[in-house]
Specification:
Strand content: 15-25%
Number of domains: 2
Distance between the termini: 55 Å
Low-confidence stretches: 1-16, 52-59, 156-166
Order of helices and strands: HHHEHHHEEHHHEHEEEEHE
Helix content: 40-55%
Structural class: alpha+beta
Length: 304
């Protein structure tokens, strides 16, 4: 008689993912510091990582990874309709001699949607690129330049020599003095790791995902923010995960005064069928650049 039991390492990638996802909410209800459940926590974590290692699917970050790093979630909610209106107003602001006007940006978004499949990451990233170019065109000045660096790989080591981040950061958006912009775009890793530039200006982290992968992308982005803060010795960072059409923004704060690390996230914000909410997305992006190292209190959002 054939046994229906299988070893963890024999599970297929299709079997593993639902099991991993079912463990996350269960783990969230357990307290590692409670001696009654401490053993259960250890056992489930052991099973969790065996499942991830046994899967042939690409490794993804989950809420369990954040719990293991003692990073706990909060929410970000718009303070009121006035705050939301101010964000839209900020995102709609134009600058002189900019060919990427709001109307031109919306036209490009419509063109991408008409001709590019967004079922794959390639189509999503083209849409994201249009929005980031609009952001850079209105925020760059003679004094400071906004640089968009795709596939950032500088965060690649941790104590013990192990990779500190699986994969790469899809986009690092950095604001630095304009005189360094050419160097940053041509040699981003070397330039941004220079001691005289490491703590000048600011950076945001963005992960690109398809629409169905936004949640795992958010976890990955938060872990990247934690690594960035640890390696640069900064307390806070901001970023988002997006498929171009939908955005989840977050702020991260590292351990402070004996407290655990935390992140606060928005609900999913939608650009809209006719890009009618593009101003809102752009306004939050502007705020994220201008307050990249502030966790709270925030100008437009409550932390809940």
């Amino acid at each position: 008689m054939t046994s229906h039991k299988r070893k963890v390492t024999e599970l297929s990638a299709g079997d593993v993912d639902p099991v991993i996802q079912s463990l996350v909410p269960f783990m969230a209800g357990l307290d590692r510091d409670d001696e009654r459940t401490a053993g259960v926590v250890d056992m489930i974590e052991s099973l969790f990582f065996k499942l991830k290692q046994g899967s042939r699917a690409p490794s993804i970050a989950t809420a369990l990874d954040l719990q293991e790093n003692h990073i706990y979630p909060y929410g970000l909610e718009f303070k009121d309709d006035t705050a939301k209106a101010l964000v839209r107003q900020r995102g709609a602001q134009e600058v002189d001699n900019n060919i990427l006007t709001l109307s031109n940006t919306k036209a490009l978004i419509s063109l991408v949607r008409k001709h590019m499949s967004r079922a794959s990451l390639g189509g999503c990233r083209m849409l994201i690129d249009v929005i980031f170019l609009r952001l850079a065109s209105v925020m760059s000045t003679d004094a400071d330049n906004l640089s968009v660096i795709p596939d950032w790989t500088a965060l690649n080591t941790s104590p013990g020599g192990r990779p500190s981040l699986e994969g790469v950061i899809d986009y690092l958006i950095t604001k630095r003095p304009a005189k360094y912009s050419g160097l940053i775009l041509s040699e981003p890793v070397g330039a941004l790791n220079r001691p005289d530039l490491a703590h000048v200006g600011s950076s945001n982290i963005y992960e690109a995902r398809t629409c169905s992968e936004l949640q795992s992308g958010l976890m990955q982005a938060v872990l990247a923010a934690a690594t960035l803060c640890r390696e640069t010795q900064k307390e806070c960072a901001r970023g988002a995960v997006t498929c171009g059409d939908h955005w989840i923004f977050f702020s991260y704060q590292g351990p402070k005064g004996g407290e655990y690390a935390k992140y606060a996230r928005t609900e999913v914000l939608d650009v809209g069928k006719d890009a009618e909410n593009l101003e809102l997305i752009l306004g939050v992006l502007v705020d994220w650049i201008e307050n990249a190292e502030v966790f709270g209190p925030q100008k437009y959002f409550y932390i809940v």
